[in-house]
Amino acid sequence: MIHVVFQANDAEALKKSFELDDSMQGDVIRIADDFAAGPLKDIYSPQGIESRKQWWREVLAGGDYNGLVDSASATDDNKTVADLAERLREDPKEVCWIWAAQNKHDVCGYYWLMSQLRDFQGRIFILYLNNLPFINEKGQLFYPVNLHDIPAKEFLKARKLARPVTLSEFEIDPDEWYKLSNDEKGVRILEGGKKLASFDYNYYDEDLKKFITGDWVKASKLIHQFLTRSKNTAGDAYLLWRLKLLIQAGQIDAQGELKGMKDFEIKSKTAQVVNDSISA
To answer: Nearest 5°: CA angle at 162, between 180 and 37?
Structure first.
């Protein structure tokens, strides 16, 4: 059995559940990229793959993850899927479980992945935690947004959700993904179920600016406030990139070196008083 997740914390949480039920034991692999942001056009072609890498290079340039795209530690998702497909071909009894929770990161990852696994219909299973209640560590009912929100023991219940990805889904979902991939938008938001909507790259800008006041604050602190208080969020690297663009556009003030999140401070734009009565 092969398990696929889309977030590092999800992988760790799933592995812990194996200690409670070894019948779920299997390899856990993770798709590392966050397809909820960035270009998707021709995403399966060498040109599209390189275009996306170049976009990430620009987003991460000078920041806390500078150079990550081309580092030895970078995960090659395309190789991950190729290796997965090879394992499925070599062993006709092997199955793959795709785990996804009710968030745009997981759903986008699901779309990107499953459209490449059609040859294995009947052996690809989906466990989608779509608005389903679970019990937290305090014994309270809650609806998890992420897979890793679920206590290890709750995975025993979650596994009952596993079902084969249907032939209809293998036909319809890739079409939906193709439409999203060709709309030239940079942000994808989950509207419910598996329905995604696309927006421009500046989608988060106005909400980000709501957390900026007239007092200097570290970019890292502001991003943390945004991530903990906003309904729709993005990765910290993406938000850092957007802040830098807002500064470059003259929409907010900054002091310090525009590199990592802790290297500079920001505040709302200083008002410029114009006295029209002054003449040369």
So the answer is: 25
